[in-house]
Known about the structure:
The chain is mostly helical. The protein is 78% helix and 0% strand. The chain has helices at residues 2-8, 12-18, 22-39, 42-45, 54-72, 75-87, 92-101, 103-120, 127-139, 143-149, 156-177.
Amino acid sequence: MEGIAKRAGVSKVTLYRRYTDLPGLIMAYVNFHTDQALHAAPQLAKPPAPLTDRQALQDHLSALGYQVLCLITRPDVVLFDNAVSAAQRQYPDIAAALYQAGPAKVLSTLSKNLADYLTEHHLSIEADAAAQMLFALWKGGFYEELQMTGRMRLSPKALQEHVNSRTGWFLAMLQADS
Length: 178
C-alpha cells in the first residue's frame, strides 16, 4: 500500500481511508476497469431493448466483445491475471472475489444481452451457457498464447475482425440449431 500511495502521489493514510486494505484496492481496480469495458462504446451505454433482431444483437455483442477483449489483452491486465492465478491457492477468497468482479460480471452481461433473443427465437440453449460459449469463442485462437507469452499477435483491426466473425458465427450456429 505504501508503494501504491507513493506512486499515486497521495499519503498512505488517504489510501487507507478510501481502501481499507490491499484486497479492497484490488477489487476497486477490477470493478472500475470491467465496468469501463462493459460501457465504453456509446452503443453499450444503453443497448437497444429488447435485443431480438439478429443484426442489432450482433452489432451490440461485437462492440461489447471488442471492448472486453481490448481490456483483457492489455499487457498490465494479462500480468495481473497471471499473478492472481499464481496466487489463488494462497489467497482463494481474493481470487474468487476478483473472478466475480471481472469475468463473472462480463458473463452476466452477455447472458442478459442474449436472453431476449433466445426467448424470442425459441432457442433451447440457456442464456448463461450461450454467454460462456460466446466468451470462449472470442478468446479462442490467440488468448492462451497471449497469457503464456505476453505476445499479442492481433492488431486492433484484426481483433475487431476476430470478434465480429466469431459473433456472427455464434449467432448463425444458434439459428442453425433451432
